[in-house]
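Example record for the data management plan.
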Amino acid sequence: MKTVEIHTDYIQLGQMLKLTDCISSGGHAKAFLEETEIRVNGEAENRRGRKLVAGDVIRVAGFGEFTIERKG
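Corresponding structural encoding:
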């Protein structure tokens, strides 16, 4: 499992996908979410604006599993 460190209260799913190199730009988020199975804490998710907070576990088909961790 890979860790995504944030320095704010949350990160949006689209931003996390870009930060983890699952997508190359924010513009690809909508199509990527339509084509790729993504689960947040075990539940299917397709909203790029979904707020992810510390402790959330995100599984992206073909890319692996990520956990959100707050620093600072």
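Summary line stored alongside the record: The mean pLDDT is 95.
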